[in-house]
Specification:
It contains 13 helices and 15 strands. The chain is an alpha/beta fold and about 375 residues long. The structure holds S-adenosylmethionine. S-adenosylmethionine binds near residues 19, 54, 56 and 106.
Length: about 375
């Protein structure tokens, strides 16, 4: 804090006012700034227009101009009581940065952009609740090669706690799953992908993360889908009996194979199937590397939690949705699990793509068959006990 009424974050000094503001969401704001910086690094002097559609006090919009190098900043919040605050705060933008401040609903704002043919290199929608209704218009407002940075605080429907709402919002089944944040992010990306494909466009997910309250995804809008991109839409099945997980692409959908549950149950495995959702990678390591490099440059500010987050995500591109909490592995073993790092090393040594999940702490992500994971964990625990 630099004074009783002012809050400092990165290069911004501003008033946060009486409305919604969470200092703890700083890593998400740092990521937004670094996404703009990474766009600037590849833009070769082109325009860098940013739309902050649910701006709150305007902290992101201000930082996009001060630290991101945005050439134009549109800051909008539907709450008209916030307008004087937004205007005061955005007066702090550097001279020469084109600015526009408004109080439209995001729907009106984005529809206006479509009518005017206006596009932005980054569209940031930091929504309360589920922004599903905004997705097609938001994608229309993103320039080709630009980024949509979307947040949802609708954890209930995306994590299987309100299945009917998930059907309405995502057109998908959301079931309880041990990697619930991951499933929520993948449902959101699945919706984004289907909307982009319906427009003839493609997407590249750049980063996806959550702290359990907000589910944040950033994607690059591509002029066309890459070959086989539709193969990233699929289903994830979790067996509540034995803990196994299976993944199928919708394009090659077949029967679910038998898992480790006794066949005698006669009804097949008790599978909880979620989807359609995005089953491809969640993170783009190249973009995360550029963001981390940009964070080293003068004029950028990445705090320690933000840096740890980016490094964790870069280390786990999340190419498979199959994730298990180590606690679930321990339950299966009937004793404490081996250290996660040891399990990752042992499964990697057997040739299976494996990593600690970057999305949820204390989780294993692996391509290895579930019986192999359990047997490897058991072997590691036994070897430790024998020492
Ligand atoms: C999560 S807060 C934004 C926080 C801000 N981005 C930050 O980092 O501090 C969401 C904001 O969206 C605004 N809002 C809610 N519904 C909206 C809508 N339909 N269109 C535009 N703004 C909306 C709210 O007034 C609120 O200020």
């Amino acid at each position: 804090m630099s004074g009783p009424d002012h809050y400092c974050e990165g290069a911004a000094v501003l008033e946060t006012g009486d409305g919604f503001f969470r200092p703890a969401s700083r890593p998400a704001r740092d990521c937004g700034v670094l996404l703009v910086r990474s766009l600037a690094a590849g833009a070769a002097g082109g325009p860098l227009r940013v739309l902050d559609g649910m701006a709150g006090c305007g902290i992101r919009a201000l930082r996009y101009g001060l630290e991101g190098g945005a050439t134009a900043v549109w800051a909008n919040d539907a709450d008209p009581d916030r307008l004087p605050l937004l205007e005061r705060n955005l007066a702090g933008l550097p001279p020469g940065v084109e600015r526009q401040v408004g109080t439209a609903t995001a729907q009106q704002l984005l529809a206006g952009c479509l009518v005017a043919g206006r596009r932005f290199e980054l569209v940031d929608l930091d929504a309360f609740g589920c922004p599903a209704a905004l997705v097609p218009l938001a994608l229309e407002a993103v320039a080709f090669g630009g980024v949509l940075y979307l947040a949802s605080t609708d954890g209930r429907s995306a994590t299987g706690h309100d299945r009917r709402a998930a059907l309405r919002r995502f057109g998908a089944a959301a079931r309880a799953h041990p990697a619930s944040w991951e499933i929520a992010l993948r449902l959101q990306l699945g919706l984004l992908a289907r909307s982009a494909w319906a427009m003839g466009r493609g997407i590249t997910p750049l980063l996806s993360f959550s702290e359990g309250r907000a589910f944040r995804t950033a994607l690059r809008l591509e002029r066309h889908p890459t070959r086989g991109e539709e193969g990233h839409l699929g289903l994830v099945a979790h067996c509540h009996g034995c803990g196994d997980q299976q993944v199928q692409s919708l394009g090659r959908l077949g029967r679910w194979r038998a898992c480790g549950c006794p066949a005698a149950s006669g009804e097949g495995p008790p599978l909880a199937v979620s989807g359609p959702l995005w089953i491809g990678p969640l993170q783009d390591p190249a973009t995360l590397t550029t963001m981390l490099l940009e964070a080293e440059r003068e004029g950028t500010h990445l705090d320690r939690p933000g840096r740890r987050l980016l490094e964790r995500l870069r280390a786990d591109p999340a190419s498979t949705p199959r994730c298990w909490p180590v606690a679930a592995i321990a339950r299966r073993l009937g004793q404490g699990p081996p250290p996660l790092a040891d399990l990752v090393a042992a499964l990697t040594a057997q040739g299976f793509a494996t990593a600690p999940s970057g999305v949820m702490g204390g989780q294993l992500r692996s391509e290895a068959p579930w019986p192999v994971i359990v047997a490897t964990a058991r072997g590691l625990v036994a070897a430790t006990a024998a020492r």
